Each structure stands twice: as C-alpha cells, then as structure tokens.
Amino acid sequence: MRRILSSFATRAELTTHLLDVLGEDLIDPEGLPSPIIGSIPSEEALALQVRPSDYSRTRNFYDGAVTRLSPYIRHGLTKKDAIANLALRDYAKSTCEKFLQELAWGEFWKVAVDQLSFDLWTDIEPYKTGFESNDYADELPADIAKAETPNACINHFINDLTDTGYVHNHARMYLAAYVVHFRRVKWQAGARWFMTHLLDADIASNNLSWQWVASTFSHKPYIFNLDNVEKYCGRQVNCRIEANPELAATYEILSQRLFRSGS
Amino acid sequence: MSEARRILWLQPDDLYPTQLTDDEWDEIIYIFDPEWLQLRPHSLKQIQFIVEAIDRLPRPVSIYRGHPMEVLGSLRKEASDCTALVTPRDNELSGYIQSLRLNDALTWLPPAEWLTPPSGSYTRFFKYWNAVKKQI
Asked: What is the largest CA-CA distance in chain A?
C-alpha cells in the first residue's frame, strides 16, 4: 500500500509522481497527461459552455457548440440536473430539446444495461451486415492504435483520442464505424480501446454506442464516407481524397464493399 | 473506547457526491486498486485527471494505491468503524467491489440521479425519451 500525493507545484511533478507510484498499473507508463485538467467547473465556466441554441444547430460539426463537459459529468464533478437547469434558465424548453436529449442518452444507456441484464461485452443482437461475429477480428490492428492508418482524417481523430482523452461525438462514430466496418474488427476491441483513453469513459454509454454503430444494438450498421467527414470536419481535418483512400466513395459503393449482400 | 469513525470511500463515477460536504466524515479516501486497473486498463491521462480533480475538492482526500481490503483495514481503528461509498453507476465496478467481500463493513449510498428510470423495457432511445422528458 502506498500513499499518493496530489498537490505539486507543477503538473509535470504530479505526472512524475503518478508514474512512480502507478506506472506499472497503466497501459502507457511512458504516457503524457491530457491537456484537459481535472477540476470542478465553476458556474461561470458552465454558463459559457452550455449554449443549447447553438448546440442544436452545430453539434455535429467538429468545431460546433458542444460543451466538452463530458469528462466532468462522467466523474460527478458537475451534475446533469445542474446543467439541464442552467440551460432551461436561459432558453425555452423547445430550444433545449436536442441538448437535453444528448444529456439523456447516457441515462438511456444505463437504463438499457440495467433492464436488459446482459453482459456488457456480449453482442445483444446479431450483426446486420451479412457477417457473423466470428468474421470480425478480435484485436485492434496496430496501425489503428498508432494512428498510422491510410486515412489522414481517421489518424487525426485517433490522435485526439490518445493525446487528449477527448473526441467529438461525431468523430467517435467515424472511428467506431471505421474500426468495425471498414476494418472488420469486433466492436469489443474498439470499445476496450476507447475505455482506456477517454476521460469520460462510461462502460454503458461506450459499449452500447459501439454496439449501435456495429448494428448489434440497432436496426442497421452506421457508416460514413469522406464527403460526410468533409462537411462536418473539413475546416480542421485533412479531408483530401488522396489522403483518405479508404473513405472516398458513395454510400452505395461503400455498402457493397463493406457488407455482404448489400446489408 | 473511542467513537466509531466514519470513512467516505470516493468512487470514480462520483468524485464530488453531495454527501462529501453534507455529512461529517472522519476521513475521505480514494483507492487506486491494482487488481481493478488490471481488469479495467487505464491511461495516465485518466489517472491524472482523477487525481487533479480530487485535489480541488472542498474536503481533503487521502489517495492510496493498494488493495481495498488492505487500505480499509489499515484505516479501521475499531470494529464499529464504518465505510460508506456512493454506489457506482458502472455495473462492472459495483460487481467488482461486491466481489471483494467487504460488504459487512460497507454502507452503499444511493447514486445521484437526474432522471428516474421509467418502468418498462427500453431498447431504443426515443421511446425512452418520450417516457422521461416530462421529468425535466
């Protein structure tokens, strides 16, 4: 048993101490801390981040008005009822609907897990891709873990994940679809990968979201193409066709390429 | 004989529970359990975020690396001492803590809840949303 200290003059000193005491327990004993600092968001900070009107218009864009509060919510450092009340204090309920739904998604995943009583790592339903579970690889390919895939935009999102522990929700869907459908890897491998990096990693939200993309907890698989990434992320992310060869195709062609018998 | 000591054991799902400041505690602790970290691998980013957040809480928190049985055993002065924890939302973590067979010494506090789970079975979001949105 060892005591862990938390107060240091600099973040770097805290990092050194944590690696000394916990390094052998971590997946990345040579790792770096996230630029996102653990703290308790002030009311002023929350007020700046919670913009339901902008959120409903721009949430799917990489630079949209998402709150980025999920790491703090995940760890109970700010509470969902406080955030909902803050939104409803300044905006009409109808304006807040999409924002409140986003807060409610995490509650839904938890309810689904509790009510369905299934193992969190088991396929809830069969894949609707024309493939069986054993057609998918068990392990995450090394080029994905290292952000060295053939696609610049995917590598950009992977670096977000591994460098900061935060990924925009739309980019999470792109990554999940890329891993499961473009590379035909079991959703479980991707879910484990996200769980080790995301600051807001929540087992119910994470695993059921991966199953939703995979189609083992939804009616059909979720896929995307380069046009979609360009529309939502093109100002920040390299979406040139030659830099993203696996993604540059129509949905019809991708469906034929990725799924058996056009699922 | 001294009075029973009350220990609050913080969990990653709720580092800042209302009980932290609403109730009186003799000690507040957080434990990094190496066995749990084997089962649920973590990165430095995640660990440092938690420790930084704990450092900013309005009550002092002692942080340990060790098996919970060993840590709690070292803090327990009397048989009547009790440890409370807020039930984690994470079903795997709750199950793991229960498997440690510390139950006799633990008081499980209810987790903070925003929306009361509706009765019935919900496997698609919008059916769930329609059932809960009146609570907001």
From this structure: 60
